[in-house]
């Protein structure tokens, strides 16, 4: 994957990118273990080829497609996004991939489609984390259709000019920069358009701590810690967390009239 | 310095060397926070092993290392709190909100507070000044501190509660041992206390 050499685009942050070595050794990916350094250590347990992605549900043209074929459908773009973990740390990630909207337009959502459900790899035979009942496997996530169609919502296949490593969610992962990191599901095998709101893994595991929306919001604390500040990886001092992770101008309109304390 | 103190301070030395050598990973503050918290609880649990071990075996050495273990636990708890304060930029507003509003932090902070009077009265002079019975009663606060520490650990983990569960089980076993072998009942205990 070649990283296009170009000036910053309208969706890029100009903040310094998190060093690749740190971005690929400090990960939450419970399928590969619960410690931050487990996913890098257990990376070889994730078999990234052959890999097919099934796109089904409320679409006119459902398809099951090989990952390399899927990649050839879209020109790769790069996006330098902030990534804010619900645990209070953040990184700046130079993703490579394509907007989810491009994929959804291709399969043509029906008039019934209101939500998009994502399902991650289920391979308890090889993935050490899935041999324990840490979470309800496979990991599932969801977006409202308008969130999914937003130009910021991105499907990443590479990072920093290189093919995604397993610990980063190879070979295909979501990147929704205004939501807490757990929304950006890794190693996606299925994308299903639905009429009703899909269940999501963390909101099933701890509904009082993690909601469906999970928009970055400094005003709504996690029950066990404040979300007002964050530590950017590589920095010692904390910095203020911004509403919608600094993407309010682009996405606040999606939630007009909603009580974001209730829909956290 | 007795061997227990030297050995007990080794993890702190390793932590400092790791920090200076950049070996604490991408989020060194969080790593140091977790390590010192776990050390505080582990050493506190070790200090609670001393009395049942003495009563069961009649050995006296566990009683002699108890104080050093207790002070080491307090040292790691203080270090843990200092790193937590650093993690919050020493901002009194943030810390106060945490302590008052979040049970997870309230539990940990109270566990530390309860250890303060115990550390302050850890000298033989204090035992004499307070009288053995009152001193003993005061030092029973360690049970409350350990329980709150274990609860704090449980609440601090996002998922996979294996380690906090092991700590809680160890604590429960140590408390049960006190109930099973109360002071001065067993022959070994009498032998030990008569010395």
TrEMBL record, chain A:
Residues 47-202 form the Oxidoreductase molybdopterin-binding domain. Its EC number is 1.8.5.-. Keywords: Membrane, Metal-binding, Molybdenum, Oxidoreductase, Signal, Transmembrane. GO terms for biological process: protein repair. Mo-molybdopterin binds at residues 27, 30-31, 85, 173, 184-186. Binds 1 Mo-molybdopterin (Mo-MPT) cofactor per subunit. It comes from the Bacteria. It is an enzyme of class 1 (oxidoreductase). GO terms for molecular function: metal ion binding; molybdopterin cofactor binding; oxidoreductase activity, acting on a sulfur group of donors, quinone or similar compound as acceptor. The keyword Oxidoreductase applies. Residues 1-22 are annotated as: Disordered. It catalyses: L-methionyl-[protein] + a quinone + H2O = L-methionyl-(S)-S-oxide-[protein] + a quinol; L-methionyl-[protein] + a quinone + H2O = L-methionyl-(R)-S-oxide-[protein] + a quinol. Its cofactor is Mo-molybdopterin. The keyword Ribosomal protein does not apply. Heterodimer of a catalytic subunit (MsrP) and a heme-binding subunit (MsrQ). Part of the MsrPQ system that repairs oxidized cell envelope proteins containing methionine sulfoxide residues (Met-O), using respiratory chain electrons. Thus protects these proteins from oxidative-stress damage caused by reactive species of oxygen and chlorine. MsrPQ is essential for the maintenance of envelope integrity under bleach stress, rescuing a wide series of structurally unrelated cell envelope proteins from methionine oxidation. The catalytic subunit MsrP is non-stereospecific, being able to reduce both (R-) and (S-) diastereoisomers of methionine sulfoxide. Belongs to the MsrP family. This is Protein-methionine-sulfoxide reductase catalytic subunit MsrP. It comes from Deinococcus gobiensis (strain DSM 21396 / JCM 16679 / CGMCC 1.7299 / I-0). The gene is msrP.
TrEMBL record, chain B:
It is found in: Cell membrane; Membrane. Binds 1 FMN per subunit. It comes from the Bacteria. GO terms for cellular component: plasma membrane. The keyword Chloroplast does not apply. Signal peptide: none annotated. Coiled coil: none annotated. The chain crosses the membrane at residues 35-56, 68-86, 102-120, 141-157, 163-181. Heterodimer of a catalytic subunit (MsrP) and a heme-binding subunit (MsrQ). This is Protein-methionine-sulfoxide reductase heme-binding subunit MsrQ. It comes from Deinococcus gobiensis (strain DSM 21396 / JCM 16679 / CGMCC 1.7299 / I-0).
């Amino acid at each position: 994957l070649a990283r296009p050499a170009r000036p910053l685009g309208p969706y890029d942050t100009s903040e310094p990118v998190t060093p690749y070595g740190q971005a690929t050794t400090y990960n939450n990916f419970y399928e590969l273990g619960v410690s931050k350094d487990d996913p890098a250590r257990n990376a070889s347990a994730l078999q990234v080829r052959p890999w097919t992605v099934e796109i089904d549900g409320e679409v006119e043209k459902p398809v099951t497609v090989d990952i390399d074929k899927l990649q050839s459908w879209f020109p790769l773009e790069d996006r330098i996004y902030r990534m804010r973990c619900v645990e209070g740390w953040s990184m700046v990630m130079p993703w490579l991939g394509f907007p989810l909207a491009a994929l959804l337009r291709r399969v043509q959502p029906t008039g019934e489609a209101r939500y998009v459900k994502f399902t991650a790899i289920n391979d308890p035979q090889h993935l050490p984390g899935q041999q324990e009942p840490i979470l309800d496997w496979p990991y599932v996530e969801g977006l409202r259709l308008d969130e999914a169609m937003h130009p910021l919502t991105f499907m990443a296949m590479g990072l920093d000019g290189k093919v995604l490593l397993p610990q980063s969610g190879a070979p295909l992962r979501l990147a929704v920069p205004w939501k807490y990191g757990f929304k950006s599901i890794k190693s996606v095998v299925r994308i299903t358009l639905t009429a009703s709101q899909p269940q999501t893994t963390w909101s099933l595991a701890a509904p009082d701590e993690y909601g469906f929306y999970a928009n970055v919001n400094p005003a709504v604390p996690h029950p066990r810690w404040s979300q007002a500040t964050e530590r950017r990886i590589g920095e010692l001092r904390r910095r203020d967390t911004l509403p919608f992770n600094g993407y309010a101008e682009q996405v606040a309109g999606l939630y007009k009239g909603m009580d974001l304390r209730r829909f956290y | 310095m007795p061997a227990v103190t030297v050995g007990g301070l080794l993890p702190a030395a390793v932590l400092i060397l790791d920090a200076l050598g950049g070996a604490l990973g991408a989020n060194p503050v969080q790593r140091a926070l977790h390590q010192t918290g776990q050390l505080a609880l582990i050493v506190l649990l070790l200090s609670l092993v001393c009395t049942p071990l003495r009563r069961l075996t009649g050995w006296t050495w566990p009683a002699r290392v108890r104080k050093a273990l207790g002070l080491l636990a307090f040292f790691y708890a203080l270090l843990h709190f200092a790193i937590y304060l650093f993690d919050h930029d020493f901002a009194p507003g943030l810390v106060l909100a945490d302590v008052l509003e979040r049970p997870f932090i309230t539990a940990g902070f109270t566990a530390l507070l309860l250890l303060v009077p115990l550390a302050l009265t850890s000298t033989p002079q204090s035992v004499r000044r307070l009288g053995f019975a009152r001193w003993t009663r005061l030092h029973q606060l360690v049970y409350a501190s350990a329980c709150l520490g274990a609860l704090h650990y449980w609440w601090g983990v996002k998922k996979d509660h294996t380690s906090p569960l092991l700590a809680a089980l160890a604590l429960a076993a140590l408390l049960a041992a006190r109930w099973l072998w109360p002071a001065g009942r067993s022959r070994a205990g009498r032998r030990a206390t008569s010395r």
